[in-house]
Structure formats: structure tokens, C-alpha cells
Design brief:
alpha/beta, 13 strands, four-stranded antiparallel beta sheet, 9 helices, binds adenosine-5'-triphosphate, about 300 residues, six-stranded mixed beta sheet
Length: about 300
């Protein structure tokens, strides 16, 4: 894994992206500092701005205002920076009329640090036929090809936009396993956007929760899990919570309530939360904020 003094994977300051003449806001004043050496899960509801952030990070689009540095430089600043980042887009695009072997030849031509041995070995390991046209591969095989091409660049950062969404559970498991093997073999960082919280929980050690174009939560999963818990108590107790306890989301069931709280205090009775519960709590809070804001406007 990269050393502690490596530049951050993402360093965003006031990062804002608006689309089109109407200025549709996709990212709104985002601040982030994501250390290297992590497998980062980027989660959030549809339209939250995840793909926009990843496209900005790959230099495919420009911010409207603010700044984003990726591995310490402007995204896609030059050929050598491009070579440091491997990107697997949504639906893992490949050239349908090219064979698997032709993809590897193309990869070698286009990438100065291409590792042919790694590419060949991985193609063999995942059982891809070099002579097969990519257009005839299954979704899982296409994803494995796209992952191999991204990894054979030997990048410092691998970026995946919902790479496994269309795969069946077995293919997804294989894909995630390979992804983790690559991360270890390359000593790379990875950013993985996904709606599949189970996948995120399985492979990520850092998360970014993006809701309504803003960062709702970001941090190392271990740290976040340590300062969140489920609090179950009579409903009335929630009116007099200890100082330092913040309710993120709460469900009432008769006179009893169950809440996900952020706490630096030891409050009884607290139960640990899973990463999935934590992410859902922040997404629920953000959705409730939008609902009450639009209700205010409607009044
Ligand atoms: N090229 C574009 N032109 C106009 N609006 C766009 C464009 N791309 C994205 N948007 C809008 O920006 C917002 C964020 O979109 P984005 O694709 O980044 O979200 P996302 O979190 O990746 O969503 P999903 O989970 O559905 O893939 C959405 O409201 C979307 O409609």
C-alpha cells in the first residue's frame, strides 16, 4: 500500500458542477480529502452526483467552480497523470468487434507502463478466450476484461463506476475478488461507486456518502463505525439525550424508538451498527431534509 506521505486520492475544495444552460446542479460545494491506500466506496441515491464526481476525477468533464486534485494533480493534467489512473466506466465498455487479444495489443500501444505479463496472466486466470470477440462476451466476462485492461496500466488509482451492477451474484463475487487482488498486487488505491451496500461493506475501508449533490459523510469505515451506534430507548428519552449524542435517523415503534446516533459518549443501551445501516441512516436523513425543504417551499 502507498506510504502515508502519498498525495491524497481526491482533494476537493468547493467543487461544484452544473450541467446545461439551466445550470442543473450535480455537485454543490463539495469538500473532500481522501487519503491514499484505501478502497473507497462511493454511495448515494440515484442522481446524487456519483458519476459526476468520478467523471471529474478522470478529467472527462470540467468543474463549474472549485477545484479537484487527483493524486496531487489536476485530473488528466498530462499523459503521465492519465497513466496513473485506470477508469472502468458504467457498463464496462469494450470494443465489440475487437477480440480479447486485440484489446490487450491496443492497451499496450496506448499505455506506456502496460504490464503484458499481468494482462496475459489475468486473462488466463479468469478463463477468457483471447480469440473471442468482446461483443460476444457475457456481462461478467466483459467486466473482467475491462478490469484487466485498467489494471494492466499499473495505475496508482483504479476508478470504477458501478462496475458490477449488471452481474449475477457469483460473477460479482469473482469480480470483487479480482479487484481486491489487483489493488493488493499494484499497491493501488481504488474508488468504487455502487448501490450494492453489501459489496461496499465487503471490500471498502473508506466511504463517501453523497446525497443531493453534497457529501453527507466521509471517513474510514472503522472510525465511522466506532463513533456510531444504535440506541434503543423509550420514545420520551430522545427528548433528553446526553450531550455529544446526535440522532442521525430514528424510527418510532409505539412508545419505543430505535435510532442511529453519532456519539462520542458512552450511552446505554447502545448496539453496534453495520456499515449498511450507517449509510442508510445518512441517506434517510438527507432524503427527509429534501422532503421537509420542498414542503416548506410548497406552503
Ligand atoms: N450530461 C448531463 N447533462 C445534464 N444533467 C446531467 C448530466 N449528467 C448528469 N446530470 C444530472 O446531474 C445529476 C447527478 O447525476 P449523476 O449521474 O452524477 O448521479 P449518480 O449519483 O451517478 O446517479 P446514478 O446512481 O443514478 O447513476 C442528476 O440530476 C443528473 O440528471
Amino acid at each position: 500500500m502507498p506510504v502515508a506521505d502519498s498525495p491524497p486520492v481526491f482533494h476537493a475544495r468547493g467543487l461544484t458542477k452544473k450541467y446545461g444552460r439551466r445550470g442543473k446542479v450535480a455537485l454543490d460545494d463539495v469538500n473532500l480529502n481522501i487519503p491514499s491506500g484505501r478502497v473507497i466506496g462511493l454511495v448515494g441515491p440515484n442522481g446524487a452526483g456519483k458519476s459526476t464526481l468520478l467523471h471529474l476525477a478522470c478529467g472527462l468533464i470540467e468543474p463549474t467552480s472549485g477545484s479537484l486534485a487527483v493524486l496531487g494533480s489536476r485530473p488528466a493534467a498530462n499523459a503521465s497523470h492519465l497513466a496513473r489512473v485506470g477508469f472502468v466506466a458504467q457498463n464496462t465498455p469494450v470494443y465489440g468487434s475487437f477480440t480479447v487479444a486485440e484489446h490487450l495489443v491496443l492497451g499496450q500501444k496506448l499505455n506506456p507502463a502496460w504490464d503484458p505479463a499481468l494482462a496475459q496472466r489475468r486473462i488466463r486466470q479468469v478463463g477468457l478466450n483471447p480469440a473471442q470477440k468482446a461483443g460476444q462476451l457475457s456481462g461478467g466476462q466483459r467486466a473482467q476484461l475491462a478490469l484487466t485492461i485498467a489494471a494492466a496500466k499499473r495505475p496508482e488509482l483504479l476508478i470504477f463506476d458501478e462496475p458490477a451492477a449488471a452481474l449475477d451474484p457469483l460473477a460479482r463475487k469473482g469480480f470483487l475478488q479480482n479487484l481486491m487482488e489487483f489493488v493488493l498486487e499494484l499497491g493501488a488505491s481504488a474508488v468504487l461507486s455502487s448501490h450494492l451496500l453489501g459489496d461496499i461493506e465487503q471490500v471498502c475501508d473508506h466511504i463517501i456518502v453523497l446525497c443531493n449533490s453534497k457529501v453527507e459523510l466521509a471517513g474510514d469505515t472503522g472510525d465511522l463505525l466506532a463513533c456510531h451506534a444504535r440506541l434503543m430507548a423509550p420514545r420520551a428519552d430522545f427528548d433528553r439525550l446526553a450531550a455529544g449524542v446526535e440522532v442521525i435517523s430514528v424510527e418510532h415503534n409505539g412508545n419505543y424508538s430505535s435510532a442511529i446516533v453519532r456519539t462520542d459518549a458512552a450511552t446505554d443501551p447502545l448496539h453496534p451498527v453495520s456499515l449498511e445501516e450507517l449509510v442508510l441512516a445518512y441517506m434517510t436523513r438527507a432524503a427527509a431534509g429534501v422532503e421537509s425543504a420542498s414542503w416548506e417551499v410548497a406552503r
